[in-house]
Amino acid sequence: MRFGHMTEQAAGDTVRVDTFLSSLLESADTAEQLVLNVAAGMGFDEEELHRLGIAVRETVVNAVVHGNRYNARKKVHLVVASSQDRLIITVTDEGAGFDWTSLHDPVAAENLLEQSGRGLFLVRSFVDQVDVRRLSPAGAEVRLVKHRKKVVA
């Protein structure tokens, strides 16, 4: 089973999905599908859905690989919440946490050939807001916000 307890609530124009995922790379597939189901229901277009999918996959892969280090006893907590004007995705791991400000710039000349380090750069370019915080006593929480474009009639 890829995920544990999952709750989904819908009230009017809002949806909330709350689930725990295993520390496996396959959990990125599950997370992406859950987010895209909610986002499609909100009316995001195909290009926005593609970008959201990449952002969610990168965030969950980071939680599994760098946060939980594939530890089967640790889970990735995914919360997806929608409102009329925005989608909020929160991914939390149970690892040691990290300092967001210490990450090097992946497009700097000295880092162009690095094998990793581009994930959060991509995530930041595909959503409207990224907040990262270290949790106590352990873990990191990454919060992604994507605003829905207003349709002008």
Write up this protein:
It is globular, with a radius of gyration of 16 Å. 30% of the residues lie in helices and 31% in strands. 27% of the residues are buried. Helix 1 runs antiparallel to helix 2 and helix 2 (46-67) packs antiparallel against helix 3 (119-126). The protein has a 6-stranded antiparallel β-sheet with strand order 1-2-3-4-6-5, covered by helices on one side. The mean pLDDT is 85. The chain has helices spanning 27-42, 46-67, 119-126; strands at residues 3-11, 14-22, 75-82, 86-92, 129-134, 140-147. The protein has a single domain (3-147), classed as Histidine kinase-like ATPase, C-terminal domain (Heat Shock Protein 90). By secondary structure, the protein is of the alpha+beta class. It is built from 3 helices and 6 strands; from the N terminus they run E-E-H-H-E-E-H-E-E. A hairpin with a 2-residue loop joins strand 1 (3-11) and strand 2 (14-22).
